[in-house]
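Example 3.2
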Amino acid sequence: MDQVIKTVAQRAKDRGETGYLVGGTIRDILLNRDLLIQDLDFVTREDPKDFAESLLEILEGKLIPMDKEKRLYRIRLKEGLILDFTQLEGGSIEKDLEKRDLTISAMAYPLDAPWPLEEKYIIDPFGGREDIEKRRVRHIREEAFKEDPLRLIRAPRFMAQLRFNMGEETIQVIRKHAHLLKNVAGERITHELFLILREDKTYHFLTFMDKKLNILNKIFPEIEDMRDIGECKYHVVDSWTHSVYTVKVAESVIYAQGYFEDHIREAYEEHAKELIAGTHRRIDLIKLGALFHDIGKPSAKKVDATGRTRFRGHEITGAELVKEYADRLKWSNKESALLYKYVAQHMTPLVLYKKNDVSGKALYQFFSEAGKETLDLLLIALADIISTRKLLDPHEEMGIFKVHVEYIANNYITRYKPIEDITKIISGREVMEAVNLTESTFVGEVLEDIKKAMFYGHIPTHKEGALKYLKKNYPAKAQ
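Structure, written as tokens:
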């Protein structure tokens, strides 16, 4: 990064160009977050396209016109660093910085100043450095949120990433303009939302966005209905309060050392960091699953003949709502399918617990239906029951349900996961050859039989065991 900045500065000097490094780079350097910097923002007095093109003579990268009307051009270097160039607005750097949203992002550093950065050369017309010292997110002007309502969620995103507080005046301005968030494109909201989900203690920032900023219900309108229902025999709080608490419990479990047995904890850690779509990780989706697991309760609410409130089928109505969210916010098909499964099947581990049924047959059916999302569903179910029971009785021991979840997780990890993709042990072609089949229509059933036999421990989990099983159980078709 340092060498790239020096190269840009030297090119500006050679061309007699007035330019500045602006925005988040300066903030992150002051916060000693240099290693997290992935993009650099520059403003130039002259044509930014012409200046960016001149840099390609000495930097290896590709020029991408991002917004010709706003004169925004990007260079993506081969090593992954992104350089954005825009033209100075307002006639001075101070006027240009005034158009930004937050003070901590409205600082500039002249390209003709020494590098590495020396604080005395920083141009800071709105007190960004003071706000960094006070660990405070503060807006520059109210109109910034009307010009681009995405900034309404960018502000709490910076809170989450930097562990900052927010100035009271900024809180009130965001509340005032919260309704404008409805006009923002779904994919832009998704980008900011998943940056918040990447942080631990997501529940804290979700609560802040909801109670303090009043913006979360502009993204997920059903929140308002959830506030009005949910209190029943098993819940002492409304569905929305319970759901946010469920996220808190899920985070406390997944991030905790020593909560699960080591091999289960290690399996969760590896599983949770899987990338599902782009930079979105499985743990980000699990948090959303915990948040939305009861979102179908308002539409499923019924009062029976005894006067008792019930929510039968809420998992299905909730899953359909989540699918609508996924469409509106432009989540990938895979993300949509995962969240649908989380909500639709989140009750299964609890049902097994109530039935006291962890038989091989019951577990195999659960694993077959849950698939690779088994561990996800177990975590959501565990968080769900803990957040429910702890509010009913804060002193209740939750060890029994934890043991129940650990037992199922252990069976999945040690017995089912190794055979989950049975074709890695024996392929369909090998089955056809072993039982002398000329058509593949029967192969899927045979593979399922082999998989069950391995899960139940009837045969060893290797190809030789599968072949012996075939010869014994399909003699009429075997060669």
